[in-house]
Amino acid sequence: MITLLDYGAGNVRSVINAVERLGGSLKLVTKPDDILSADKLIFPGVGNYESMIQILNQKNYIEPLRQYLSADRPFFGICLGMQALFQGSEEAVSNNESLGFFKGRVERFKTDLAVPHMGWNGINIKQKSPLLDKVDPGARFYFVHSYHLVPEDPSVILTTTTYDYEFVSSVQKGNVMGTQFHPEKSGKVGMQLLENFISSDDLHARGPANIEGKGLAKRVIACLDVRSNDDGDLVVTKGDQYDVRDKGNVRNLGQPVDLAKRYYEEGADEITFLNITGFRDFPLKDMPMLKVLEETSKNVFVPLTIGGGIRDYTDSNGQVYSALDVASQYFRSGADKISVGSDAVEVALAYLATGEKTGTSAIEQISRVYGNQAVVISIDPKRAWVDSPDEAKGHHLIQPPEPGPENQAYCWYQCTVQGGRETRDLDAVALAVACEALGAGEILLNCIDKDGTNSGFDLDLINAVRAAVSIPVIASSGAGCEAHFAQVFEQTGAEAALAAGIFHRKEVPIQAVKNHLAQRGIAVRH
Ligand code: 1PR
Fold first, then answer.
1. What is the spatial distance between Cα 45 and Cα 78, in angstroms, rounded to a whole number?
2. Tens digit of pLDDT for each residue in 154-167?
3. How far is the CA of 241 from the centre of ligand 1 (A)?
């Protein structure tokens, strides 16, 4: 019997699904006594450190947790759930006092690389532990965090990981252990680690080790654009430059749950769902999308992102729902990240006009509760061609190798909303910078001109945005063959590349992309 400490933030569904898949039975902590009566306790934490500590205090969980830990009973903290074991974090502004089981603190990454550290990275094993039994030392695990541990006592370090520099990625002392990475999101290798925790009778470490692991891999993401077709069924569709109709009918490329499962099995590093008509429907009434997430997360143990319709909403009875309410439903249904499209453009325009952060925008609210890493901004720019820089003052201008349709020498990338239906006087670079300032943790960078063309990613656009932000960028739109992925990783700083059409039409298998990247010396997860 595994007891799960769910303090109400982030995606615990994946941990529940993983434990159940491994045959474990699960009980949720609903009162302080449940902690003390647990046989084995898992504490998955996602989001903001300070809000986690506040909730643990409000629920009176701190003291029973301290008692449980000091009795050396089996405890597994994941991500924030492990950070909570230390004395405090730089992330917390005021209330900083944590469980204090381990001496040491949590610090923000100090690096020129993108922060959050997001993606599949290796582990350097420092101790032999039953937790790592049957885990291939060359395996990679899924990380998503901006802060890392700095323990005072090196003897508690189980593994380290290298991201610019070496940081502590898991700890263990007796029966108390934790990982910065997410085993529940790390595919088969993560399941093995969870199984080790669940089924081992003796979890104590067995002495020092010195095994070096691999480095951070570039991510290959499969994207599923989802909407109702004309018969009212939720289907995966795919457009050409955002036009998803073929002879008047919405293209139907399959069922979202089935396709997501297929891509997980084929080795996708993440799956993204975009509810492309979310801007006109209210997602909390769009229960099929929540169901899709619930069902998908039972079979798919890599990160899931969901976008479409994440904004404040007032229904016909005057009932107000915040973007945070909508996002919370998605997280509870199995999403790890949410993606904001149209609303981000409006929010950024308002922020750029006043220079003031209101604290009430979707980006700010969701990142405050769930952490920056959970907020992706999906940008849908279109090229706007001009003859001279004077015609695009204030916008980030590019001089592409090929001129425009009327021989124009320059273009800027104009933001659109509602799936490209309307444009705004804002360029993609400015949008990305504003959203990072408001608290976004990642950019999903589409390009309407390239979408569905199979002609390769828009390298100019990707370079311009990547150079302007310090959060990870996912290159999207235009992938037509394996070589396009190598090109985007060799010629831009993108951390991940996403494709839709070539995977849906089975033109290029995900493994073929990864094999090609590996042959070119680009690190990928196999
Ligand atoms: O504005 O917050 O409601 O979010 C709506 C979301 O739906 C946005 O993220 C927006 O990008 C997306 N969206 C809206 N309309 C469409 C459409 O296609 N008509 N799809 C749409 C966006 C772009 C990518 C696509 C890549 C790769 N699709 O997701 O998968 O371009 O395609 P490719 O590899 O086939 O070239 P909101």
1. 6
2. 999 999 999 999 99
3. 9
